[in-house]
Specification:
Layout (H helix, E strand, L loop, with lengths): L2 H8 L4 E9 L3 E5 L5 E3 L2 E3 L5 E4 L12 E7 L3 H10 L5 E9 L10 E16 L2 E9 L15 H7 L24
Antiparallel strand pairs: 1-2, 1-7, 3-4, 5-6, 6-9, 7-8, 8-9
């Protein structure tokens, strides 16, 4: 830590802000700060979309850790991007920034987690819509089976307009051949 960061932490006149970089088809820069923060020539926008990140666990052993990134799903841009272009293995980087009382970055943000999206869930309720991304670190790739996913999004990434996996969600439905129903 720099002397500036140590001095600031010793005082009580600072704020903490998370900065999150979502590298989907379009790169999104979000923050939970009360104002937009500019870092590395990118504006991390304070729109209220970024709700929470899960607890980070520090471990001395090499583990395939994961955390949840929770967003409100009201932004049709992000939802459309994820559903149209896929979300699996898309990079996510999370920074922790020490902010002065006038919301200026002190020194440089700390990168606290970098990983790839492993799964996504969308929860719809009356009056709210929540998007939760499970982000795993690079060690999780060691547990994966190599190859592509059997999803329409994965197929479209390599073979645009191929409908091979278009109906994969119907897999496992019972088909009755040659049986006459009453």
């Amino acid at each position: 830590m720099s002397a500036t960061v140590k001095t600031t932490l010793a005082s009580s006149n600072y704020y903490l802000a998370n900065l999150i970089k979502l590298e989907f088809n379009t790169t999104y820069y979000l923050t939970n700060a009360s104002t937009t923060i500019t870092y590395s020539s990118n504006d991390y926008v304070s729109t209220g979309l970024f709700i929470n990140i899960g607890d980070l666990q520090d471990d001395s052993a090499i583990t395939n850790s994961a955390l949840d990134v929770t967003l409100t799903a009201v932004s049709t841009g992000i939802m459309s991007d994820l559903l149209t272009n896929g979300y699996v293995d898309r990079p996510v980087t999370i920074y922790l920034s020490l902010m002065s009382s006038d919301m200026a970055i002190i020194d440089a943000p700390f990168e606290i987690f970098q990983g790839n999206v492993n799964s996504m869930t969308i929860t719809e309720k009356l009056g709210s819509s929540i998007l939760k991304l499970k982000v795993t670190n690079h060690w999780a790739k060691l547990d994966q089976i190599s190859g592509r996913y059997l999803t329409d999004a994965s197929q479209q990434r390599f073979f645009k307009d191929d409908l091979c996996f278009d109906r994969v969600s119907q897999t496992g439905k019972r088909l009755e051949w040659g049986i006459e129903k009453d």
